[in-house]
Amino acid sequence: MPKTRTVQKYTDKAIERAGTMSKEEYHRIKHMPKIELVHYLDQLCATAYKTGYTAGYEAGKKENHIAASEIPDEAK
C-alpha cells in the first residue's frame, strides 16, 4: 500500500483567525437562512474590496510622493 501525504487543508493564518471568532458568531453564521448568508457574504466581500482598494491607493500615493522627491531639480 503506497504512503499518502498528509496535506494541510487550512493555512496557519486561517487556523489562527478561527480562534478569534466567538462561538456565538459561528453559530449565528452557521444557522443563517441562505438569503441572509448571501447578503452577509456580499457585504463582507464589498468591505474587503474597499479596504484593499484604499490600502493600495494610499500605498501608491506614498510611492508616487517618494518617486517625485527623487527627481533631480534640473529635470523639474
Please describe what this structure looks like:
- The chain has 76 residues and is an all-alpha fold.
- The protein has a domain at 33-76.
- The protein has three helices and no strands.
- The model has no long low-confidence stretch (mean pLDDT 79).
Brief summary of the model shown:
By secondary structure, this protein is mainly alpha-helical.
Class inferred from helices and paired strands = mainly alpha
**How many helices in DSSP terms?**
3
Cα-atom radius of gyration: 22 Å
Largest sheet: none
Percentage of residues in strands: under 5%
Question: Level of helix content?
Answer: 55-70%
- The number of E-state strands comes to 0
Q: Give the low-confidence spans.
A: none
**For the residues shown, what is the average pLDDT?**
79
The termini sit apart by 72 Å
Helix and strand element order: HHH
Instruction: Categorize the overall geometry.
Output: elongated
Task: Please describe the structure with a list of short key phrases separated by commas or semicolons.
single chain, mainly alpha, 3 helices
Topology overview:
Elements: H1 12-18, H2 23-30, H3 34-69
